[in-house]
Each structure stands twice: as structure tokens, then as C-alpha cells.
Amino acid sequence: MNDLRILISRLGWPSTSARWWTMQELAARLGEETARRATESALLQLLHSRKLEAEVVEVLCIFWMASKGYGYSPAVELTKNIPKPSLLSNLLMESLGLSARSGDMYLKEVSEDFKIPDDFDSVQGVDLPKIFITTLHKLEIYSGLPFVRRMAFEWAENRTAYPEAPYQGGLWHFSQSLGDGFIGSLSSRTSLRVISAYLRTLAIAEKRWDMPSCLAGKKSLLALPVHPTLAFLRPKRPLWFPTSADFDGDSKSVEAAFRALIARVEAAHPGDELISFSSPITISAERCVEVSLVRWSQDPGSKVVDRHLGAHLSSFWAQRGVLTSSAPHPLSTTTIVAPSKHEELLDKDSQAWPLAGTIDFDRIGYLQHDLYPSRLFIPAMLGSQKITPHNEHLEIKAKDQVVANLFYWNAGWGSVRPKPFGGNCGTALISRGKTYRKELGFQVRSLRAFYLWQIRTLHRSGTFEEFRETLATGTVFV
């Protein structure tokens, strides 16, 4: 069996996770001495054949991942094999230590009678998130320049890249057998065409409309297939993962299940603490269960009695404290999280605050949407933190000391997920000792600790029925 040929073909699959994992495997092969030459040759041929800017970026990301994660030294031939350069491909080339390619960037004028195609508007928010058109719309309001019209024109133009199949099928094909209630975790040719039109519009704005290069480069990062820090996460389900039946039953049974989960994590990681957990437990056509858990601290003086605390804090799951992130340079594998403000995390009525929050969308990978936003919990601390990839998980440091690790796994093998769920994957944020709590900056007096939990259950009798949703929230004091 030709594994390399199979991997190359999988880069064309619309499944987002499959493409990301395939990129990881190919990057690892570039780092292996025995497989490097054949893999490099196959990828250079693939790169040369790409017809869209976004397709070029995806292949270049494989070389970038191999360089950053597996000690690969990129071949100089890389520069010669880029048929559709963009601001983002140039950033990747510079990060690899190679010269950026200006390309022929043939610029057509948009005729006055050009009308935005109906299919351009119809795919926004359906085949891909609206973040691309929203970003250009904001730039248009600020500058008065026709960013959205230009993007629509580029969309119409790049239809010729695949004249016989510009859309690569419909999303319904992947979910119809499961009935209503499921949505595809997909990035099809439609997405690649829109993202390519977005990148081309930014290049035109920089070249013709005097858009500052630093701003154009920053906006181009929205078109990254993978977040530079998250690119090396490998899915590995932990041995302590709960069974599908653990969270059935009454409130006492559920609390017992959460206590058992916390105990299993502590047994697997002696001296450490589970800070957050978020994952589907069961996914089937008739029943789906998603469980989320975050550790909190509480000062004396609460106006909310303990039995009502879960209901009082239930809005946390909809809002979640968002932690601001940045990077030393655009493609740095390090993500810096800004200090949290205690007053913004504190719920005054209960005098409680979460010990974790989700990071923002500063650099988002469109092949990693399963992780956003509800899976990427990071400790909420009064000092800044650095997140870096380490041994296929994430390592979080404060003052150069490791305070926590984020682990990731796949929880559903299909190409679709239940619509209300955050994704098919799960994560767990586990502390390294108890330093993360000391770093909060409080003189610990009589603080109480508890976990706020949520169980989302979808159930129906058959695939022709709509899901009925049950949402339960509560607390477990520890």
C-alpha cells in the first residue's frame, strides 16, 4: 500500500480534522531521513499544481510544520513551485528563511456593471464562517474602499480554477443519513475559493490602495489553516476518560460521576488538579451527551446559597471569560495570554470566580474550528502566560514555570457533529501542582473550591425527529 499517495489524496478531503491530521503526518515524514526525499518530491509536485491561494498556503503549512516541529530544512525549490502567492504564503516563506515570491498578481479592473453574485452571499455563514467578509466589511467602513465588492469579484474570477466543480458538493451529503440536528465539520472547495478571494483582496489593497503592510499581514492570519501554537496538538484520549453511562441518573448519581472523574484525573496526575474538562461523551444518531467542567474559587460573603449556585452561574457557559492573546511575531509557535483582571472574572453575588477562561480568536486555524471557542480553556491568572506546544499537548507557563497542560482528543469519528455541541473533540486542562492558584495573587484565607458543571443531552426516538435538548448545570464542592 502506498501510504504517501493516500496521505496526499487526503489533503483534498473536505473534513477539517482529517486534513489537519494529514498535514501533521506529512510534516513528520519530512523529518524522517528515510521518507524525506519521496515526501518532499510529492509535496513539491502537489504545490506546483495548486490552483488557489488557500491551497498553496495549506501545502506550505506542511513544510512550515516540518521545519518547526521535526528539524526539516526546506528545499530552495520551494520558492519556484508557488503558482499562487499571497501575503500569507510570503509570511510562511519568510518564517522558513526563504525569499518571498511576488508572483504575477495579475489585477483585473472591476467593471462598473459587475454585480455581486448571489452565490457569494449565500455561502457566507453556511459553507464557512462570516469572519472573512465581516473583516473586509469593517475595513470598507473605515476606509471607504470597496473591499467586499473586490472580494466578490475575485470569487467570481476564481470559479475558473475548477470550472466543472466549483463547489465540490454540498454539506448535506455528509449529514443526511443522520437526519436533522447535525452539522458538518468541513472545509470544502467553496471555503478555499472564498478564503483565496479574501487573501487576494488584501494583496490588492496593499498594492493599489496603500493599505499598510503590517495591517494587511495581520488580517491575512485569519486565513491560516492551523493556529501556529495548536498545529502540533495530537489527539489522544486519556485512560481516565469517563464511560458513556457515567452521567445518567439523578443529581446524586451525576455528582458521584463528577467526583469519580476528578478522582481518576488526580490518580493519573498525583499532586495536580483538573482545572477544566469539556468533551462529548456519547455521539449517536439518537442520543448525544456533552459534559463540561471548570474549577472555581469562592470567597466568604456569598449571597447565593450553595444549592442555587449552579443555576446562578449557568450564564458562564454562554459567555465564558475570554482571555486576550497575542504572539511575538505572526507565525510564532508561542502564544502569550494577557493577565486576567479579577474584577472582570468575579461574580459579586456569589463572591466566586472561575480559574480558567477561553482564549480569543487572535490567530485562528480554519481546520481547527472544533477547538473554538469552548475547548480552549487556559488558567485565568493575574500574571501573563506563555502557551507553547510540548510533546503533542500544550504547555502553559507563568514566569518560566509550567503551571498547567492542555490535552486534546478526538471524541467523534464522523465528519459531522451535533449542532449545539462545541465540536467533535475534547480537552482537559490539568495543573502542574498548585502554583497556578498561588499565582492568582490572593492571600488564601478561607477560600472554598468547587466545580461548575454542565451536561447537555440531545435525545430523540428516530432520525426523522428533531432532537430534544436537556441542559443541566450544578456544582461539586471539593
Low-confidence stretches: none
Please tell me the total number of domains.
3
Radius of gyration: 24 Å
| First-last Cα distance | 53 Å
Quote the beta fraction.
15-25%
Q: Could you give a short account of the major beta sheet?
A: 11 strands, antiparallel
Rounded mean pLDDT score: 91
The structural class is alpha+beta
Total DSSP E strands: 16
What's the tally of helices? 17
Which of globular, elongated, flat, extended, rod-shaped describes the shape? globular
Task: State the helicity in percent bands.
Answer: 25-40%
SSE topology sketch:
Layout: H1 3-10, H2 16-30, H3 36-49, H4 53-70, H5 77-80, H6 87-95, H7 118-123, H8 131-143, H9 147-157, H10 172-175, E1 182-184, H11 189-208, H12 213-220, H13 251-268, E2 274-283, E3 287-298, H14 309-312, H15 316-319, E4 322-323, E5 325-326, E6 335-337, H16 342-345, E7 352-354, E8 356-359, E9 377-379, E10 385-390, E11 393-398, E12 401-410, E13 416-418, E14 425-431, H17 435-438, E15 448-459, E16 468-477
Parallel strand pairs: 4-8
Antiparallel strand pairs: 1-13, 2-3, 2-14, 3-7, 3-15, 5-6, 6-10, 8-9, 10-11, 11-12, 12-14, 15-16
Helix pairs in contact: 1-2, 2-4, 3-4, 4-6, 9-11, 11-12
